[in-house]
Specification:
Helix content: 10-25%
Strand content: 15-25%
Number of domains: 1
Number of strands: 4
Largest sheet: 4 strands, antiparallel
Distance between the termini: 24 Å
Structural class: alpha+beta
Shape: globular
Length: 120
Amino acid sequence: MALIWWDDGSQGILKRELFSLGHYEYGEAFFGSYRGMRYRVAREPLENVHFTPPDKRDPAVIRVSIWPEPYAYAKAPKEQIVTKDFDYDQTNPDDDVLDKVTAYLNEYWKSHAADWPERN
């Protein structure tokens, strides 16, 4: 995946900043922020399936939620949270889904740049 360079020289959100897919199997979400945009990445349903064989797991998606600062996820007004689901194969996990998530986060930030109270 190519690095994204914004006009100000920053790289945007990088895939390596997100946790590996194995992290999400423990029922844990990843929370991050980038210049006024907060986001959450999690396996939904949010449950610990790490020790469950992949072929015995219920269907799941990787869900990305985005909202503006300054709110934490639990306190953000629900109408301000935008979500998008990404399919992935639990029996053959592939980091390609994280490439898609990273691209989506960067595209969303850039296309809604006027909505973010920019903070470095």
